[in-house]
Amino acid sequence: MEPFFHPAFTAWGSPVTWLELLAVILSVAMVWCNQRQWIAAWPLAIASSALYGLFFWHGRLYGEAGLQAFFIVLAAWGWWQWFRGEAGHALPVRRLSRRGWAWSLGTVALGWPLLGAFLQHATDSPVPYWDALPTVASVVATVLLGRKLIENWTFWVAINAVSVSLFAYKGYWLTVMLYTAFIPLAAWGWWRWQRELLDAPA
């Protein structure tokens, strides 16, 4: 794996490794497919998560690294959900219920400080709570995406905004550009799914 950690080029004084570059390319392809509800999004998610898991572990962002491992499991689940998640048929786009909102926001509110405390005491992470927030929220957003709940895009807008500042702190400038681009892409994903909801028969 060592060649993948060699710099491909330098951006704003920080080296961009081949590993980061490949992970970025696969991540963009994944979001593009998610917007269009193409099943190819899920194998791309598995591949990009595996690469980013290695990348973040190397950079001591253990929450983000662990999140990528969980993403791989969730991607396999989401793959199946999109195929056969609704009584043996492909899932339709739908909205989150009040109970679903309470579960989603409550999970983030409880999980963030718990994971932050764990990272603070069990690892040498320089930013345990900052790392923990997008980690926990991303788990919730991925579950919503797997169930084709349109609110997953709202979560991704907020997660990507927090992640931009985290990765800028680490000097991961290519990933900063990726997550900055993810913000309007998530808004566009919401718009595409909203159109499908409005066009769906009552």
How many domains? The number is 1
Count every helix, treating DSSP H or I runs of 4 or more residues as helices: 7
**Percentage of β-strand residues:** under 5%
End-to-end CA span: 52 Å
Gyration radius from CA atoms, angstroms? 17 Å
SSE ordering? EEHHHHHHH
Walk across the major sheet and give the strand order: 1-2
Largest sheet features: 2 strands, antiparallel
Task: Supply database-style keywords.
single chain; 7 helices; mainly alpha; 4% strand; 202 residues
Describe what you observe in this structure:
- The protein starts with 6 loop residues before the first strand and ends with a helix.
- α1 runs antiparallel to α2 (41-58).
- By secondary structure, it is mainly alpha-helical.
- The protein is built from seven helices and two strands.
- Helices cover 74% and strands 4% of the residues.
- The chain has one domain (2-199).
- The chain has helices spanning 18-35, 41-58, 62-84, 98-122, 128-146, 152-170, 173-199; strands spanning 7-11, 14-17.
